[in-house]
Amino acid sequence: MKKNGLFSRLFMGLVFLFLYAPIFVLIVFSFNATKSRTVWGGFSLDWYAKLFQNTQIMGALYTTLLVSVIAAAIATIAGTAAAIGFYSMKRRPRTLCLSVNNIPMTNADIVTGVSLMLLFVFAGRFLPFKQGFATLLIAHITFDIPYVILSVLPKLRQLDANIYEAAQDLGATGFLAFRKVVLPEIMPGVLNGMLIAFTMSIDDFVISYFTAGSQTSTLAMVIYSMTRRKISPEINALSTLMFLVVLALLLVINIRQANQDKAAKKKADKLAAPGSAALLDTQK
Amino acid sequence: MRSKRNQILAVPYVVWMAVFVVVPLLLIVVYAFTTKDGSFTLANFSTMNQYLGVFGNSFFLALVATAICILLGYPLAYFLARSGHRMKGVAMMLIMLPMWMNFLLRTYSWMSLLEDTGLINRLLQSIRFFDLWNGIFGTNIEFFHMINTPGAVVLGMVYNFLPFMVLPIFSVIEKIDSRVIEAAQDLGANSRRVFQKVVFPLSLPGVLSGITMVFIPSVSTFVITKLLGGGMTMMLGDLIEMQFLGAAYNPHLGSAISLVMMIVVLICMAVMNRFGEGEEEAMLL
């Protein structure tokens, strides 16, 4: 295919400007000395200092991280197990399971949220519990697992069935063969699934909003309740910090990937031309 | 690996799905067809008549947002797929990065940009744009009124859901075998015809999955309308939210509205499945 011309570069630039303008504004105004979000009143780091003293925001941040980590961890283990189970099934039950698995992903978030809320309200009539952290966690696990399954299943399909059998022929028990042979092969899918699950949990607002009850709040819920009055610039400071953390993480991943590619290429070059290198040596 | 014994591993999750996916959906159906005291009724659906405007409004705005997402997202995905290896990595990162920031914050930030005394209007004032505008059109305005309009709501949807359009299209275009394109060129097709006859048809599954991924959250949003629509534009999401957590508490009506919306989603999915296989992979990036 042809390389991009001036028009396409300009187009891409404008779309990226559109995507980043609000983020830029958010970051700039986190350093604003006044509380206004449109008028610049001088540079200050006050909002960063105040952020760490704000117990409401810090508490919500803690809840968000806690629920995301636990939900992603449980979803990764349960989802990987379920993916192997699905993979072992006959065609028909597998198709059925996968369609049900797809429901939380394709349904509108608000429908997933209110349906779970109905369940919790309904169950609350018979069981002594209230909506809170536990129900929030259940909801997060429920919408996280499908992503793990969909990211592990393709890896299982790519797996060479013979290597598992070979390991067993060589005397490994079922679990040992799984741990030593299968798991390393599907690991990229498992990790990818975990990452998607964690991202989904961190980013979720709608489902949490309907399932967390009135006592528990995630960060998104605090922000939402603030938008009804006025968002305090402390939130700008927090999102700037989060943005930087994510940016750093992505950069590290990208650079590592690039280095690995380079190393792999070098290795391949060396392997491809050992004869020619030897030839050069003898000519000297 | 594919042994019968391993099927047991799926059992816990199948039970989990039954309790937390299937039963809640059945509850929605039950609530939709019952009254407060538990007797059967269709009244929830007939009272929905008064909200026909909201249905129409939601579908119209979501359609407009989806169309704009295609117009912006398709070229972007196409140009990105043609970029060099390095550029591709960076650009993908730039598209994913905003998704990691809470969407409420990013949407809220648009408020600062769009307000009557917001940053865009201030910028235009500072370059004396409105003098020029008034001079040409004979008007007498000092700012553009952008916030709290349906246009702002559409902008918010496009902004939030554009990545969901770009990513599936990008992954599909990237997977197109370059030999297919070369073959078309060898057979005498110019670049326009190559696009028309080869690239575009092969990228359709990505577009279709992008459409579902943009349309469904758009039609059911209630946050974007609250923040950028100022409560002036009512959408299905607002309606449902009101019935469950808002002032008009009525989970039965809310369930009925959700049910109708879900059926529309199901119809969409059925149409999608008829069009393209390979959907599953496109969705996973």
UniProtKB/TrEMBL annotation, chain B:
One of its GO terms (biological process) is transmembrane transport. Its main location: membrane. Residues 55-272 form the ABC transmembrane type-1 domain. The keyword Transmembrane applies. Pfam families: BPD_transp_1 (PF00528). It is found in: Cell membrane. The chain crosses the membrane at residues 12-34, 54-77, 89-108, 152-173, 194-216, 252-275. Keywords: Cell membrane, Membrane, Transmembrane, Transmembrane helix, Transport. One of its GO terms (cellular component) is plasma membrane. CDD domains: TM_PBP2 (cd06261). Gene3D superfamilies: MetI-like (1.10.3720.10). It is a multi-pass membrane protein. InterPro entries: MetI-like (IPR000515), MetI-like_sf (IPR035906). The keyword Transport applies. Belongs to the binding-protein-dependent transport system permease family. CysTW subfamily. This is ABC transporter permease. It comes from Lawsonibacter faecis. The lineage of its organism: Bacteria, Bacillati, Bacillota, Clostridia, Eubacteriales.
